[in-house]
Design brief:
Length: 443
């Protein structure tokens, strides 16, 4: 496993472009430029949520060689994990990057960016850099992302592409927010053809991460202390400039985490370092409350709404304890991908979520050492995960299409081996209309 991670590091540092040049480094703000450098034609779209957050989406409508430009190609929406951004799906270059593989398979790919990360750090009225307004701006957890961001982006994609349904893929927190949306707003199940969740963190009765499990015991106290010290955001945009002159990597990581040397210990208390799998410069940012919400669920061994305190819970939920997210309300076809070496999602919790959803199945990755972030970081994720996802989306998309000349949602079958073709189905429909007309005349 160590050798595999070393190989990944070498590849990430020196991915070679088709013209022989070393692939340069692009910042989190240069995702579109990186996509163009890799030979694709990206688009940038902006979506405003009902509560005023302005989200940036990145679209890759065609493959590298535009091999499928048909209007009926599958439309896929991909959502990143905690402290992530759309750029995380393209860091391995054209051959191995998750969304590039989807685009090259002929899909119309849309990547979202959750509120508060560096690509979606905007609001119609609130300034995240204002010392007063930042408290309101960053007063959200993964629930608001699931209740407002994801639905707004889905509706935008449906309207823009003139589709009735799309496919959804969520990695880590991208899976969490789907579980929130599909259980709290069950009408959105009808807008999805298929759903693939890559290590979706939901149930946490058997949370495997020992360090985070210990830190979670003090979640509410740590979060309250952070708020009193004005800490509401992880990895703010100016975090590098705010901590000049620091050379030790551990001290630098913690200081950049909250943009402060004085309060850098907060990252250790929350266990943020154990969530960081790459260089701190690459972190897209998040609200500290997102970490706090996960911490509460780890501590309480529940998957439920944010715990404000007994009195505030009564006001918010009309009960003193936060309600559970009811996964039995999720009816969309879900495939839950999981692995045995995931330090944020235990196999038992993954299987329990599948059992509680109405139309879900589990799929264990065929490498026991596969890690939580390997879905987008490991070179062999293509053969272990991505190829399967592509094949399943193609099958689901074809099954969801109406047959030409009919109003059916799937191809009608005459017997076990013969399908009605488009021409044949049109003939059958015409005969049916003639018979119906004669019946009306006779009657």
């Amino acid at each position: 496993m160590v050798l595999g991670r070393l190989l990944l590091g070498v590849v990430l540092c020196a991915v070679v472009a088709s013209d022989g040049d070393v692939r340069p480094r692009f910042s989190i703000y240069e995702t579109v430029e990186l996509i163009k450098f890799d030979g694709y034609q990206p688009e940038t779209h902006h979506v405003t949520t009902p509560d005023g957050y302005i989200l940036e989406m990145h679209r890759i409508p065609y493959g590298r060689y535009a091999n499928n430009t048909s209007e009926d190609r599958p439309v896929v929406f991909v959502m990143h994990g905690l402290m992530g951004a759309s750029q995380g799906f393209i860091l391995l270059g054209p051959e191995y990057s998750f969304v590039y593989n989807l685009a090259d398979a002929g899909f119309d790919v849309w990547m979202g960016n959750a509120r508060g990360n560096k690509n979606s750090r905007f609001h119609v009225s609130l300034d995240p850099d204002d010392e007063e307004e930042k408290f309101q701006f960053f007063d959200f957890s993964f629930e608001e992302i699931g209740m407002y961001d994801v639905p707004a982006m889905i509706d935008y994609i449906l309207q823009y592409t003139r589709r009735d349904k799309i496919h959804y893929i969520g990695a880590s927190q991208g899976g969490t927010v789907f579980l929130v949306m599909a259980s709290m707003l069950p009408e959105y199940n009808e807008k999805l053809i298929s759903v693939h969740l890559l290590a979706a963190v939901g149930y946490q009765n058997n949370f495997p991460g020992a360090q985070l499990r210990r830190a979670a015991l003090m979640t509410d106290i740590i979060y309250s202390q952070a708020l009193r010290n004005g800490i509401v955001e992880l990895f703010p945009p100016n975090s590098v400039e705010m901590v000049p002159g620091i050379t030790p990597s551990r001290e630098l990581s913690n200081a950049r985490c909250v943009g402060s040397v004085e309060y850098s210990y907060m990252c250790e208390l929350f266990g943020v370092r154990s969530l960081m799998r790459n260089n701190p410069d690459d972190q897209a940012g998040a609200a500290l409350k997102q970490i706090a919400h996960y911490g509460q669920n780890i501590r309480d061994r529940q998957f439920r709404r944010y715990h404000h305190g007994r009195q505030a819970n009564q006001a918010a939920y009309n009960e003193t304890s936060p309600p559970l997210y009811d996964l039995s309300l999720i009816t969309a076809p879900v495939t839950m991908h999981y692995s045995l070496s995931d330090d944020l999602l235990d196999e038992r919790d993954a299987l329990a979520m599948v059992a509680d959803m109405r139309n879900a199945k589990a799929r264990k990755v065929a490498r026991d050492s596969f890690l939580h972030t390997d879905y987008v970081e490991a070179l062999d994720a293509k053969e272990l995960v991505t190829d399967y996802v592509i094949e399943e989306i193609i099958k689901a998309d074809l099954a969801a299409r109406p047959v030409e000349g009919t109003i059916a949602t799937a191809a009608p079958v005459i017997d076990n081996s013969t399908q009605v073709t488009g021409a044949a189905s049109t003939t059958v429909l015409n005969v049916y209309l003639v018979v119906l007309s004669l019946y009306v005349m006779i009657k």
